[in-house]
Design brief:
Alpha-Beta Plaits; alpha+beta; 2 domains; five-stranded antiparallel beta sheet; 6 helices
């Protein structure tokens, strides 16, 4: 930090707290929350909490110091004006999707993001939000892997059903 100047303890504590909080997180999406009222922020926080994410209003100067000390470079351009950060420890695609969708209806602006160590612009975050989640990709993969087996079962089942219908028709013919 600054040498020769006495820094107040509460500022040091605030930076340490941010570093601890940011250290457990891999993805950050920066937003401008100007114009949101308390109910809207609460609604946004609740939706993000459902996705195991947190929405934290930060002081830009403290956040810049914390990001530099954690060696997350390239985010200074997002730390201006009123800033809140969506912190996602897991899959951040649904978090981005929620923020982008809510930005359509609310005075919320996505500034950019730091996702998997890469800096994303607001347009890139919007494009990222349109990608399927990991769970959706797993489901598509499993459906693709199951398709040949399901088709085999249908074919085998069809052969046995045809045999049973043929035998039943022969039995009905002999019964007449």
């Amino acid at each position: 930090m600054l040498e020769g100047k006495k820094i107040q303890q509460y500022k040091l504590d605030a930076v340490i707290e941010l570093k601890e909080r940011f250290g457990d997180v891999q993805d950050f999406i920066f937003t401008d929350y100007r114009g949101l009222n308390v109910e809207q922020i609460t609604e946004l926080r609740n939706k993000l909490r459902e996705q195991n994410a947190e929405y934290k209003v930060v002081k830009n100067r403290f956040a810049k110091i914390a990001f530099h000390e954690l060696e997350h470079e390239g985010v200074d351009d997002f730390l201006f004006g009123p800033t809140a950060i969506a912190l996602s420890g897991e899959d951040s695609s649904p978090v981005a999707k929620t923020l982008v969708n809510m930005a359509k209806d609310l005075p919320l602006k996505v500034k950019g993001g730091l996702i998997s160590g890469s800096v994303f612009t607001s347009d890139q975050v919007e494009a990222f939000s349109m990608l399927p989640t990991k769970e959706e990709l797993y489901a598509k993969l499993m459906a693709t892997m199951n398709a040949p087996l399901q088709n085999l079962v249908y074919v085998i089942n069809g052969v046995t059903q045809k045999l049973v219908r043929t035998l039943q028709a022969v039995a009905d013919k002999k019964a007449e």
